Amino acid sequence: MPAVRRFIAHLDMDAFYASVELLRYPQLKGQPVVIGGGRRHQPVERDDGQQHFARLRDYVGRGVITTATYPARALGVHSGMGLMKAAALAPDAVLLPVDFDQYRAYSRRFKAAVAQIATLIEDRGIDEIYIDLTDIPGAQQTADGDELAGVRALAARLKAAVTEATGLTCSIGVTPNKLLSKLCSDLDKPDGLTVLMPDDIPSRIWPLPASRINGIGPKASAKLARLGIDTIGQLAQADQAWLIEQFGSNYGAWLHAAAHGRDERPVVTWRAPKSLSRETTFERDLHPRDDREALSPIFTRLCEQVAQDLLRKDYLGRTVGVKLRYDDFKIVTRSMTMPAPTRDATVIRQWAGRCLKTVPLDRRLRLLGVKMESLCKPDEAVLAQEPGVPYSLPLFEDL
Questions:
Q1: How remote is the C-alpha of 302 from its chain's centroid?
Q2: C-alpha distances out from residue 349 to 238, 295, 331, 339, Å
Q3: What global pTM score does this model have?
Q4: Percent of the chain, pLDDT > 90?
Q5: b/e per residue 347-384 (b: at least 16 CB within 10 A)
Q6: CATH superfamily of this structure's domain 8-14+102-202
Q7: Tell me, what DSSP letter sits at residue 119?
Q8: How far is CA 342 from CA 9, 303, 310, 374, in A?
Q9: What is the widest separation between alpha-carbon atoms in the chain?
Q10: 3-state class of 115 per DSSP?
Q11: What is the structure's pLDDT at 392?
């Protein structure tokens, strides 16, 4: 009896946020569209019934791109790029505001569609999941000499289910492990399907840049380049002992294994979050004293959003923290542990306000964030009894 082959899929939604927006505004299909604006960039309906869209060339501020359609990416625009810089590359691109509530709704839809077919699913974020296909009926079948016919048909079935449930496309990579599948889901985007086995690694994986391996960040990639290693194939040819000498025992050994496509990590169907946080970057710098009327509702809303996240995921948190980025880009964080865990927005805001009292508030702020840590389930703790304080409490009082 032939050995059972391990099949792990990585499913990645195609330009997820942008694709959701194109469902709402189908007239923008095929155009360069950037997601990352604020409420003021909401499309406006004219008297003739036509919608007027903001253009990137008119943007003024320091926001960054959340995502972009593939036509926009072809112009050099990508996620994480400043909107002002993107405007120089694609001035005529449409700019749309971010709508995370809508994206989360579609995320739940595509994951529910996959769960109708497969049960071993690892949630990796709003737009990607790992799926263990090994024991799903039909995955191990062969047809007409094609040993991978069964798993290929199963992956196509998953893609069709996602599209039927959401109207969106996804790309899937299927390989023996998570590392290779993550790589392969990006090989044929958008709407791609790549099935790859170990014998295919030299021809399909080794020519790729070493930075394509998930886990090789900018610093490691730059160091590898200085050492004359640019591709995964070159990394695979490097001596393991030499890599350990250059990068340390753990990371050096991992680099060698990753370049050869080795990864034994299982698909983890449940993972408790370590923290939940919300943050916002301001379109202009705000001063803690001069702009307290603008900052106070923003701060309150962040606390409310964190509380809503805790409720939705059914967690309580005991440690509350704040994050500030000043106009000189310096980041400061502070945290406090409360007497009892909570998910009450009023209590979170009170303790987050106390955290703010411990940081310097003499410079303008670019970013403000709130985090909850030390999470637990309700049946593991008693809800906080502290009544909290009114939302009208000044943000930076007594300064």
A1: 19
A2: 53, 13, 20, 15
A3: 0.74
A4: 72
A5: bbbbbbbebbeeeebeeebbbbbbbbbbbeeeeebeeb
A6: Reverse transcriptase/Diguanylate cyclase domain (3.30.70.270)
A7: S
A8: 37, 12, 9, 11
A9: 78
A10: helix
A11: 39
What pLDDT, on a 0 to 100 scale, did the predictor assign at position 283? Answer: 79
Q: What is the pLDDT of residue 393?
A: 42
The tokens of 91 are what? 């001035």
**Domain residue ranges in the chain:** 8-14+102-202, 16-99, 206-259, 275-380
Q: How far is CA 111 from CA 79, 100, 169, in A?
A: 23, 16, 13
Task: Say yes or no: domain 16-99 is CATH 3.40.50.1100.
Answer: no
Cis before 190 (ω within 30): yes
CA angle 130, 135, 138 (to 5 degrees): 105
Instruction: Report residue 11 as tokens.
Output: 């499913």
The first and second tokens of residue 362, run together, are 């003499």
State the catalytic residues: 128
Rounded to a whole number of angstroms, the distance between the first and last alpha carbons of the chain is 76
206-259 maps to CATH 3.40.50.720: no
Query: Using CA atoms, how far apart are residues 261 and 128, in angstroms rounded to an integer?
Result: 20
Three-state DSSP class for residue 45: strand
Q: Could you report the per-residue pLDDT of 135-161, keeping only the tens digit for each?
A: 999 999 888 878 899 999 999 999 999
Residue 386 has pLDDT above 70, yes or no: no
> Who's near 307: CB < 8 A, 6+ residues apart?
343, 344, 345, 348
**At 289, phi and psi to the nearest 5?**
-90, -50
Question: Which fold is adopted by the domain 275-380?
Answer: Dna Ligase; domain 1 (3.30.1490)
Which of the pair, 210 or 98, is modelled with greater confidence?
210
pLDDT band for position 2 (50/70/90)?
low
Q: In degrees, to the nearest 5, what angle opens at C-alpha 392 toward C-alphas 388 and 393?
A: 65
**pLDDT bucket at 79, cuts 50 / 70 / 90:** confident
